[in-house]
Amino acid sequence: MMRQRLEVLVVGGGPAGMAAAVRAAESGQRVGIIDDNEALGGQIWRGRSEAGTEASGWITRLRSSGVNVLRGRIFHQPEPHVLLAEADDFVRELSYEKLILATGARERFLPFPGWTLPNVMGAGGLQAMVKCGLPIQGKRVVVAGTGPLLLAVAAYLRRHGAEIAMICEQASWASLAWFGMALLTYPSKIFQGLQLKRELAGTRFSPNSWPVAARGTATIESVTISRRGKSETIQCDYLACGFHLVPNIEVPLVLGCEIQEGCVRVDDFQRTSVAEVFCAGEPTGIGGVELSLVEGEIAGFAVAGRLAEASILFGKREKLRLFAKRLDRTFRLRSELRNLPQPETIVCRCEDIRYSHLRDHMNWRAAKLQTRCGMGACQGRVCGPATQFLFKWNSESVRPPIFPARIESLAGLNSKQELCETTGGR
Ligand SMILES: Cc1cc2nc3c(=O)[nH]c(=O)nc-3n(C[C@H](O)[C@H](O)[C@H](O)COP(=O)(O)OP(=O)(O)OC[C@H]3O[C@@H](n4cnc5c(N)ncnc54)[C@H](O)[C@@H]3O)c2cc1C
């Protein structure tokens, strides 16, 4: 097994992780950053580093400050201050003195009849596939769910030749208007908003709307939308659907970091409740790229002991956190969405567990034990947040390996015994 010793290890190469790594390395720390994607940049930049962009600026600084860039996915903590990462063809042991977790967020999916049909995809997921080469030219796409990501995705797909049949946003006009007013105090957000408005000119945008059923044989052919109390069926080739984002807190959980309302609790300097472990970006709350960057910078300064420089950024972070709170309030899921699944609707798509098999259980643990809900390949990453919303279950429990890992990676561990015990019965 490859072993590497680092002063500072950053997990996650999105905006937060890159900013943290740069600030720590520029402060003289020996820094490694690990991400499970081909290229750095996280969900928003995904390796796009055209000269002159913000992404390229951070990547250039990262390279010139000597940060060691590693590829792999952290899946286990065999002992304190050691993490294991698996890549395509090897497993790596990383020991660190200080750790910065910047593991980002993922989309939240809610089950409704037909949501498992081919070509019903996460909004960000479809965007990512198009970025990786999926042809979308001339395809008719309905974008549905909630949150600002819907607009970003619709604009992106339209730029690449898709016909956006409709954008369906579950939030009401009133809350969107309130959010729009709040944007007036954030000049950069106004600019982004106007740009999206221009790009989406002529596209149907409907608040108070959500998908109730997707239909098709081999793939989706149409989606029925509940729109201001009435039903409307729209023909489409794709349904890009996401209900805002959920913080990725599996690695912080396995390290024992305290979680508050689904997010990692941090102090002013982005320190978690575990000594020498910091956290930045979306695991501490969903707030957008600017907040991720500033939290990353604070964590990078703090890990290097430059607390004065870190505290200069507190004001900026506070303003962006206020924006994050408004985001949360505006795009909070309405209770009607709890009625979307029918008894036969699959909720856990890894294990094919239907709504009728789950609704009578008391909690997440009982449902797991009785049905295997959340015990498949995604380990509850999709159905966990869905059942949290549908049944108010707390699905915040994680056991190593955090992600599915190869048998040979597990077999190479010193702590074989521990893994045998903790993975038994899965
Ligand atoms: C699917 C999706 C698409 C998005 N598209 C847009 C968009 O078009 N425009 C926009 O403004 N915002 C978009 N966002 C929101 C945007 O990602 C955030 O606002 C912000 O960029 C988050 O930055 P971050 O560094 O906190 O996290 P991320 O950018 O999510 O970076 C976290 C990184 O950590 C990696 N990671 C996680 N766990 C591990 C592990 N165990 N081991 C190794 N690596 C790990 C992830 O793969 C990821 O690369 C999107 C979000 C999602 C989920």
- Outline the low-pLDDT stretches: 415-426
What is the beta-strand fraction? 15-25%
**What's the helix count?**
16
Structural class: alpha/beta
Counting copies of identical and different chains, the oligomeric state is single chain
The rough form would be described as globular
- Summarize the amount of helix as a percent range: 25-40%
What does the model show?
The chain has 16 helices and 21 strands. It is α/β, with parallel strands linked by helices. The strands form six sheets. Strands 1, 2, 3, 4, 5, 6 and 19 form a seven-stranded mixed sheet that branches. The chain has a five-stranded parallel sheet with strand order 8-15-9-10-11. The two termini are 26 Å apart. Flavin-adenine dinucleotide binds next to helix 1, strand 2, helix 2, strand 4 and strand 7. Residues 11-17, 34-37, 42-44, 73-74, 102-107, 124, 127, 149, 152, 245, 248, 251, 281-282, 288-289, 292 line the site of flavin-adenine dinucleotide (FAD).
Concise synopsis of the structure shown:
The chain is an alpha/beta fold and 426 residues long.
Descriptive key words:
globular; disordered C terminus; alpha/beta; 426 residues; 7-stranded mixed beta sheet; binds flavin-adenine dinucleotide
Topology of this protein?
Layout: E1 2-11, H1 15-26, E2 31-35, H2 42-45, H3 54-64, E3 68-71, E4 73-79, E5 82-86, E6 91-101, E7 105-107, E8 120-121, H4 123-131, E9 140-146, H5 149-159, E10 163-169, H6 173-183, H7 187-199, E11 205-206, E12 209-216, E13 220-227, E14 230-235, E15 238-243, E16 245-247, H8 250-255, E17 259-260, E18 263-264, E19 277-279, H9 289-303, H10 307-312, H11 314-330, E20 346-348, E21 353-354, H12 355-358, H13 364-371, H14 383-391, H15 407-411, H16 416-423
Parallel strand pairs: 1-2, 1-6, 2-3, 6-19, 8-15, 9-10, 9-15, 10-11
Antiparallel strand pairs: 4-5, 5-6, 7-16, 12-13, 13-14, 17-18, 20-21
Helix pairs in contact: 1-3, 1-9, 4-5, 6-11, 9-11
The structure holds flavin-adenine dinucleotide.
Flavin-adenine dinucleotide (FAD) binds at residues 11-17, 34-37, 42-44, 73-74, 102-107, 124, 127, 149, 152, 245, 248, 251, 281-282, 288-289, 292.
